[in-house]
């Protein structure tokens, strides 16, 4: 964390989103769109196409053409860890906070806003968040009733 971040209460924090991508053409557009529509803060998003032979690279390139906050690197397939690592030195130190986003996941609306608020309130050295949906085997009307009666969404926030 930038030592001055605690003092800059009014200025927006900046985020660097890293998206390793291999053969995820079916999901990548939705993931990148969830980043693009974040209304809060400053961010850049670096997609590393890890040697995909589907349309993954073309989708990433299209986001890059339409929005200057997106960066794309194409490399031979080297695995998810190598793809993440490739994004780190590629564009210097853009963003105070590093966000890893899997290509088949999405950010919730206003994600950067609530992350910024949590960071400002708690001044963590390390910040991790995530979420998911509990597994369920219900069908038909039982699904709706289950939504009403129980909490099937969960998440966590560490600082």
Structural summary, described in words:
- The protein is α/β, with parallel strands linked by helices.
- The protein has 2 domains: 3-124, Spore Coat Polysaccharide Biosynthesis Protein SpsA, Chain A; 126-159, no CATH class.
- It is 35% helix and 25% strand.
- The protein has helices at 25-36, 56-66, 80-90, 111-122, 141-149, and strands at residues 14-21, 42-50, 70-75, 97-100, 128-133, 153-158.
- The strands form 2 sheets. A 4-stranded parallel beta sheet has the order 3-2-1-4, with helices on both faces. Strands 5-6 form a two-stranded antiparallel ribbon.
- The longest helix has 12 residues, at 25-36.
- The chain is globular.
- The model is unreliable at 1-8 (pLDDT under 50).
- Residues 17-126 form the Glycosyltransferase 2-like domain.
- GO terms for molecular function: hexosyltransferase activity.
- It comes from Candidatus Spyradenecus faecavium.
- This is Glycosyltransferase family 2 protein.
Keywords:
159 residues; alpha/beta; globular
Architecture (CATH level 2) name of the largest domain: Alpha-Beta Complex
How would you state the average pLDDT, rounded? 82
**Biggest sheet, strands in spatial order?**
3-2-1-4
Number of E-state strands: 6
Summarize the structure.
With 159 residues, the protein is of the alpha/beta class. The protein has helices spanning 25-36, 56-66, 80-90, 111-122, 141-149, and strands spanning 14-21, 42-50, 70-75, 97-100, 128-133, 153-158.
């Amino acid at each position: 964390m930038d030592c001055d971040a605690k003092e800059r209460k009014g200025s927006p924090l900046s985020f660097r989103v890293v998206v390793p991508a291999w053969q995820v053409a079916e999901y990548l557009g939705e993931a990148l769109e969830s980043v693009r529509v974040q209304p809060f803060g400053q961010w850049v998003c670096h997609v590393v196409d890890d040697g995909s032979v589907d349309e993954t690279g073309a989708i990433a390139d299209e986001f890059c053409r339409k929005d200057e906050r997106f960066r794309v690197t194409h490399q031979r397939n080297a695995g998810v860890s190598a793809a993440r690592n490739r994004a780190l030195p590629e564009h210097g130190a853009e963003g105070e906070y590093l966000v890893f986003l899997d290509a088949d996941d999405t950010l919730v609306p206003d994600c950067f806003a609530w992350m910024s608020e949590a960071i400002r309130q708690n001044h963590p050295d390390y910040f991790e968040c995530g979420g998911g949906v509990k597994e369920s085997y219900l069908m038909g009307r039982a699904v709706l009733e289950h939504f009403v009666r129980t909490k099937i969404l969960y998440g966590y926030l560490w600082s």
